[in-house]
Amino acid sequence: MGANLIVTGLVLSAMPIGEYDKRITLLTKERGKITAFARGARRPNSQLLAATNPFSFGEFELFEGRSTYTLAKASVSNYFRELALDPEAAYYGFYFLEFSDYYCQENNDEKEMLKLLYQSLRALESNSYDNRLVRAIFELKALAVNGEAPNVFGCLSCGKKEQLFYFSVRKGGMLCADCKKKAEDAWKMTESTVYTMQYIISSDITKLFTFAVSDTVLSELRRMLDEYLHLYLNHSFKSLKILEEIT
Predict the structure, then answer these.
(1) To which CATH superfamily is domain 3-78 assigned?
(2) What ranges do the domains of the chain cover?
């Protein structure tokens, strides 16, 4: 016998099914990433029409069948409508959704990823933050939440906590000045960049979007993340390609 359950989540993607239905992917606090069918959600008078669009965040009442979920009701508290007014910010947002869809798992504890995604989308809506920094924070913290972030708190070779000036993507983190020769790909970072990475990885998600960085730090963060994600994630995101074209 099926049963109804209420989950808190955010719509990552929506796909048309048949003439009037949708299949949506939700990132939820209770069940991780799940897929649900929304019957009649594409009808003009459907109460589910807006609630089943990407970026919709709120409570979703689902009927849980043997192998599928069916959306019965939705109470949306945030549509992130401000993103629609800024195409560049919108594509950053779509990239965050696609990244989360790829990275998160069904029936897994994804509370922290949901919190990170929500806070990152809020940061995109604000004029107070550089979208490039929001992206770097989102990517690095997502890696940290999933236990896959680079080691930036000690030398990977000798364990020293000081003079961590060199980053090696193949080693997976920082090397001190004495050990840099052990990695041919090691390149020098500024102390401010190392501190910024340490702060992002170790801080609570609610405290992430509270600072700005110099162009030098942002450039070094971008280089580090591009190299690291290419080696360890190596996935092509459609929304990221579009984002890179328009920026």
Answers:
(1) Nucleic acid-binding proteins (2.40.50.140)
(2) 3-78, 84-153+161-246
Distance CA 185, CA 93 (A): 32
Q: Are strands 69-78 and 32-38 parallel, antiparallel or unpaired?
A: parallel
DSSP SS3 for 36: strand
Cα–Cα distance measured from residue 244 to residue 247, given in angstroms and rounded to the nearest whole number? 5
Cβ(48)–Cβ(126) below 8 Å: no
Cα–Cα dist 64/56, whole Å: 21
pLDDT tens-digit profile of 173-215? 999 999 999 999 999 999 999 999 999 999 999 999 999 999 9
Q: Which residues of the chain have pLDDT under 50?
A: 1
Q: Specify the pTM.
A: 0.95
Measure the CA–CA gap between 49 and 238, rounded to whole angstroms: 25
How many H helices and E strands in the chain?
6, 8
pLDDT of residue 1: 47
Longest dimension (CA), the chain: 67
Q: Which fold has domain 84-153+161-246?
A: de novo design (two linked rop proteins) (1.20.1440)
b/e 14-37 (16+ beta carbons within 10 angstroms → b):
beeeeeebbbbbbbbbebbbbebb
3-state secondary structure of 23: strand
Tokens of 126: 């604000």
Q: Other C-beta atoms within 10 Å of 214: how many?
A: 12
What's at 244, amino acid-wise? E
